[in-house]
Amino acid sequence: MRIATPCLVCTNKLFNAKTFNILPKMFVLHVGQHKMQISHKVDVEMNQQLYTYKLRGLIYFGDFHFTSQFVSENGGIWYHDGIETDRRCNFKGNLSDMENDALLYSQGRQVCSVIYALE
Length: 119
Fold this sequence. Notes:
The chain is mainly β. The protein has one domain. It has one helix and nine strands. Strand 4 and strand 5 form a beta hairpin.
């Protein structure tokens, strides 16, 4: 698997070699505490064919507590906090309208992992 998308900050090509016998349906990237541009999609090349993964989830951490946002198929962003929202998710907006900082931070917590799923 080769990530074919260039870095949105420095425009250098990203390269992270991983070998799979079967293309994963999803993958999670741990970003730690780095402030970075979160891509809405990632193109991956395998066996000389290009596959697209779309952003589907973001996991946040702060104050010893995890929260999350998931991205629906139509691009809606939904916030979840098991303590605050119980089993409900609150609509936050559309991915296409979100600034990068709105993805990096949610309710005072910083993103620590992003989830991509095969289109």
